[in-house]
Write a structure and sequence with these properties.
single chain, 193 residues, 6-stranded mixed sheet
Length: 193
């Protein structure tokens, strides 16, 4: 019937309007700047990325391009630059702290961000379907330059066997503290506790 067709057309227009509003809301969020960004980013190695995504990462985040998690770290740092200073707390793989392919990214971040906390969790840190990655909790503060006397705080509970043991160890273990600038002198600019 004509009424049914008109109703269906109106439903389609309503769906389009809702989708457009959702896209507009997402664009506003992604264009904003925040004092705190907290997230568990997606992990996807460059070899598994679609060519379009590879090209985007190479163009916009060349130091981080080898894993989508590192690209997300860079993007979160951009989002957290609220009036010059913000904080990013992120769950991501820990392998980039020592792999040679991330040396340039580590150098830049150690030179230009405040490394507040590195918590090495290792594998089996969470009780989720994808729990077998060596992950870390990382807290970085955005700022213009890292201070020479700035200290990196860290904890390593990677050797604990499961999420419950890691949780207990995180509450009990003492934080290690090192000069952040000293990390730049490590072989390969590796970040280590």
């Amino acid at each position: 019937t004509l009424w049914g067709q008109a109703s269906e057309l109106q439903d389609d227009r309503w769906d389009l309007a809702l989708n457009a509003k959702g896209l507009l809301d997402a664009a506003r969020l992604l264009d904003g700047r925040y004092q705190l960004v907290v997230t568990n980013v997606p992990y996807l190695a460059r070899g598994k990325q679609h060519d379009t995504l590879k090209e985007y990462c190479e163009t916009h985040y060349p130091e981080a391009k080898n894993d989508l998690a590192n690209v997300f770290l860079e993007r979160c740092l951009e989002l957290s630059r609220d009036q010059g200073a913000g904080v990013v707390q992120i769950v991501m793989p820990q392998n980039w702290l020592f792999l040679a392919t991330y040396k340039a990214q580590r150098t830049t971040l150690l030179s230009h961000q405040r490394w507040m906390l590195v918590a090495l969790l290792g594998a089996k840190a969470f009780q989720t379907p994808m729990w077998d990655f060596n992950v870390q909790l990382l807290t970085l503060g955005t700022q213009a330059e890292a201070s020479l006397n700035q200290r990196l705080q860290g904890v390593d509970v990677a050797s604990q066997p499961d999420a419950a043991a890691k949780d207990m160890a995180l509450q009990a273990v003492q934080l290690q503290s090192q000069l952040q600038a000293a990390q730049l002198k490590n072989p390969g600019v590796t970040v280590s506790l």
